[in-house]
Amino acid sequence: MSCKICGRRAKSEFCKRHEEAYKSILEVYREWREAMSISWREYLEEIVKNPYSGRWVKDVASYLLAESEDEKYRRCLNESFKLSKWNKSDRRR
Amino acid sequence: MKILLLCEKPSAAKRIAKALDDSGDPVEKRIGSVPYYESKNGDKLLIVVPAIGHLYTVAPKIRNRDVYPVFDFEWVPRYKAERNAGNIREWIDAISKLSREADEFIMATDYDIEGATLGYTILKYACGGKEGEAKRMKFSTLTESELKQSYNELLDHIEFPMVEAGICRHMLDAIYGINLSRAMTIAAKKQSGKYKTLSTGRVQGPTLKFLVEREIEINCFVPVPFWRIDAEVEINGETFKIEYEKSVIKSLREAQSIVEDCRGRDGRILNVDVREFNQPPPVPFDLGTLQREAYSLFRYTPRRTAEIAERLYLEALISYPRTSSQKLPKSINYRAILESLGREAKYERLTGLLLQRKNLTPVEGKGYDPAHPAIYPTGNLPERELSQPERRLWDLIIRRFMAAFGEPAVKQSVKVSIDVNGHTFYLRGRRILKEGWMVFYRPFLRVEDVILPPLKKGQTVKIKSVSWRQDFTRPPSRYNPSSLLKKMEDEGIGTKATRADIIDTLYTRGYVSGDRAMVSELGLDIIEVLSKYCPEVISVEFTRDLERSMENIKSGGESREDVIERAVRHLKPILLRLKEREELIGEELSEAIRKTLLNQRIIGDCPACGSGKLIIIRSRRTGKRFIGCTNFFKHKCSVSFPLPQKGMVSSANKTCSKCGFPMIRLKLKGKRPLTFCVNPKCPGKDGMAR
After folding, report:
1. Max alpha carbon distance in chain B (Å)?
2. How much is the pLDDT for A74?
């Protein structure tokens, strides 16, 4: 299997480098949500244009934005929700 | 009686010959192109002969470069093992010839691990086994007085424990470097069919790992927003910036509420905290601190600083620079050095200030080196016009030396706490009350006073402005040559003599580029492959452990044979593992090599079509090189530019300020690199054409 972004060898959808960047994107979304009101798509757009975002992070964010399938979009959202603690506490409530 | 005196470099030989000749005018002779000097010293004739660095090197007994693992190594003349070392044969022949006529031998190479190893191998192999009977000159400066004293107080024999440690270091570097580099180069070549030297080593691997870890952190970094409060206060008509009690506000709502609370309100001074503190002088330079300071002040890379310092040492202007010591012993005669430096108009007043004192006691750092003191000026003045970098570095060393004798500087800091509607802001001031050592080091200091008007508790001040500003967390900085050197020192890998060269090798191999060391695809892949298949070879712990063992050899705690045997035992299974997986490793590396080679050919974005890249192409028909657009193959863009046919061409990584076209860098052998724009019709080239 090869990475959908760079074509490097990959075990899943992304290679090791982009997988790592993808995880960072998911993890940090929680902190953005705590800081301001922002949707997943807006968040990805912010990351792409931010000069401090890492190269691989920008690759993944651009890829996710470009991906038109709603299913994919929903899956990302769900995964980010799973990771975030605030979401767990929200559900309990 | 003829005595052969072996030196490390021609310039050192000339200086030693001059110092030891009774008339101060030795006879210069030559064997072919190898210079040597005859000095009369009483009833003895000294034959002072230089080497040009190491004449011998460690090489595998099996000469075939495609074979690994290899563990049988031997010392051979460098011309047998290295390309472009043909001139070494002449030097070995000349030294051998002179040694046959000599009755006694003195080793006068630098007094450190490399100097000892270099001298030992020449005495052993070129002079026919004279290493056991040779005496040793030990000196830290090339001044006449110290050289004479050193000659009169010869050590009975060369420093064998240091030689043992040196041999061990060379052996280990060869065993690791040659085997691992061959494993990777061969694996990649078999897979891609292209030859590209890939190297790693005992110290190089862990160093590259530091850089790769940082690169991954930067590339996976997602910035997080936060907010800051900017505020200004007006006191007696003057405006000062004040800091909010929290430097980081984590949510926009909170930042907005703080601004709302404080806008249009007055502030009340809660407290005025005035503190005085002493700042002691900086410690004398060892090589590492000198390299870092020179990078921070002049942007000289560690290697460049080491080279300049070496030249100053060979001119007898400073003491031996490859030292770890931060101590200045009394024996160097501080007063004489200062008096001598006072002859230079620039230092007359400053040295005068120190010479007025009865006692001169320098501040000392923790660094210790049994062989040499910290770097200090000898007091000699230049015999030739120094280049600007040489003069700058010499000035820095002199001023640091003087500063070491200075009194502590006394500084005052003021922190005023201001309450604004329940929020606390700080107004800070600072000034120097007594310059102390700073007077000597002034050109290299960047301190600015912030003087506040008189303020007292309970006083009301006007808040002139208050607003919030969004900011983002930043990724960690990339290492630069100086911070990488510090990291290597802190981690205890490499030596003061080798660290700068290792950093340089990372650049030469294309693993790293730019002033802020950015790791290339190849560098990332090398570490990825090594981490996957043999993480032990990039382990900092193992490298550090070997460094400790080599220190132990110096002090007689361990034997060279034991340390080498342990290293081989460690490396053998790793290399066998690498050999078994050669195909897989080759596959992973060849892709990175392909990308690196392609990147080296890319000059920049195409200014004509905007979407293609300008790339160096060699015409199959004419064999000549030129620049073309990658979109040519898609029949979208036919732009092309001519290129000089000689020299190395690479991207200058910038665009022309006149026409905006990418710029290239041309390096011709023996000449300074030229940077110019690819556009032959560039307005900036009008003058050149005329």
Report:
1. 94
2. 61
Tokens read off for B364:
């000392």
- At residue B315's C-alpha, the angle toward residues B24 and B357, to 5°, is 95
**B448 contacts: CB under 8 Å, gap ≥ 6:** none
Q: pLDDT, tens digit, for every residue of B488-498?
A: 999 989 888 78
- The pLDDT tens digits of the residues spanning B520-560 come to 888 998 899 889 888 888 889 888 888 889 889 988 889 99
The per-residue pLDDT for range B568-583, each reduced to its tens digit, is 998 899 888 888 888 8
Kindly determine whether residue A56 and residue B220, on different chains, have CB atoms separated by under 8 Å: yes
DSSP B230-273: EEEEEETTEEEEEEES-S-B--HHHHHHHHHHHTT-EEEEEEEE
CA-nearest of B14, B71, B9 to B567 is: B71
Cα(B344)–Cα(B347) distance, rounded to whole angstroms?
6
Tell the burial category of B582 from Cβ atoms under 10 Å away from its Cβ (0-12, 13-18, 19+): middle
Listed residue (B62, B116, B176, B73) closest to B566, CA to CA: B176
Tell me the helix, strand and coil percentages in chain A, rounded to 5. Answer: 70, 0, 30
Instruction: Give yes or no: B320 in active site.
Output: yes
Using DSSP bridges, classify how beta strands B2-7 and B104-108 pair: parallel, antiparallel or unpaired. parallel
Q: Which residues lie below 8 Å from residue B191, measured CB to CB, with a gap of 6+? A: B583, B586, B587, B589, B590
- Distance from C-alpha of B305 to C-alpha of B429, rounded to nearest angstrom: 36
The verdict on pTM exceeding 0.90 is no
Query: The tokens of B128 are what?
Result: 């026919």
Q: Do B219 and A21 touch (CB under 8 A)?
A: yes
| Distance in angstroms (rounded) separating the CA atoms of residues B237 and B220 | 48
B248 contact residues in A (CB cutoff 8 A)? none
Of B56, B151, B244, B320, the catalytic one is B320
